[in-house]
């Protein structure tokens, strides 16, 4: 009889950590953006401390005075103290990031405040003229400086502005986009020369453009002052802006898209028309907006080429025509309060027209590549469902049978036909 000896079962004793050991800490994701409690406290503390420093400097220590100097001193002290307080908890890169974020937010706030002040002040000063309906439907032919706001209006200036900017856009948009495509798609020595000329024309004074059109169109060809001549002068001012902005936008189109289109055998013009331009459509709309904003506010070229009139003229080929900027200039230089109110009302209408043109350009331009509206997303989903159904029908047995029936295979040749 064999006796089998078995070892006693081993029991695992609990593992005890040595005294003084630090327990492991679970990894937590680092928060990159967004406000934190320490950051908010550092921001508020730096602002309060900087205010105290500015009060001490301007009230007790230094003989400083003035609201502007007080504000600049407070802001400089705020940046220094904010950097010091942030440096107590963060490294140098985080300190620079926090300080530059504060500077950028300050700049954005100043720009927004300036824009709000300009728009608000213009609308407030023109509040007396804007409620009158005749201000938008009548001209100034039968109204004088001493007449009340219930007589006269800016219908002639509004129509003139729309006609002139329409002529300028009809000239600028095709030429500007074509020139930008040429600079982007056909590099070479001549394209560099054209780009240099465009960059030089960007700083062309508006009075020079007006004088050029006046010398060529009116003095040289013997034409009369008209809205057409003013449209030519405005297009000269808009063209370099549109070309330069469109060239920058077209450079941002990924080269892989054009390479893929050309690899599929598409010619260059089809690649540009179906790939490059649709991809940069929103940016090109922004370029047109920038050019329109530059041309719609010109005064001196319009005065030289279109003259001035107080009557409504809807024919851009004959007779003087006035624009809203020129009407504003003529109204505000009058000492009469009613004329000044008309001037500020005209400026408010001009800003509204620019806003409307901006909205129209945004709608035409659409969204950027990869961003679809809800209607486009639904249309894409319906097309995908149709494709899935079509592929499912073609892979089903009935679909395969129908495909074989519609496309019969040729009978194999066993060599009997030669006999």
UniProtKB/TrEMBL annotation:
An annotated GO cellular component: plasma membrane
UniProt KW Transport keyword: yes
Composition bias, Basic residues: 372-383
UniProt KW keywords: Cell membrane, Membrane, Phosphate transport, Transmembrane, Transmembrane helix, Transport
Residue ranges annotated for the ABC transmembrane type-1 domain, each copy included: 158-361
GO biological process assignments: phosphate ion transmembrane transport
Annotated spans, Disordered: 1-29, 368-419
Membrane topology annotation: Multi-pass membrane protein
SUPFAM superfamilies: MetI-like
Keyword field contains Phosphoprotein: no
Biased composition annotated in UniProt, kind: Polar residues: 393-408
Gene Ontology terms, MF aspect: phosphate transmembrane transporter activity
Stretches that traverse the bilayer: 40-61, 67-88, 100-124, 154-184, 196-220, 226-243, 343-365
InterPro entries: MetI-like, MetI-like_sf, Phosphate_PstA, Phosphate_transprt_permease
Predominant subcellular localization, coarse grouping: membrane
Lineage: superkingdom: Bacteria
Location(s) in or outside the cell: Cell membrane
Similarity remark: Belongs to the binding-protein-dependent transport system permease family. CysTW subfamily.
PANTHER family: PHOSPHATE TRANSPORT SYSTEM PERMEASE PROTEIN PSTA
Role of this protein: Part of the binding-protein-dependent transport system for phosphate; probably responsible for the translocation of the substrate across the membrane.
Protein name per the record: Phosphate transport system permease protein PstA
Organism listed in the record: Streptomyces phaeofaciens
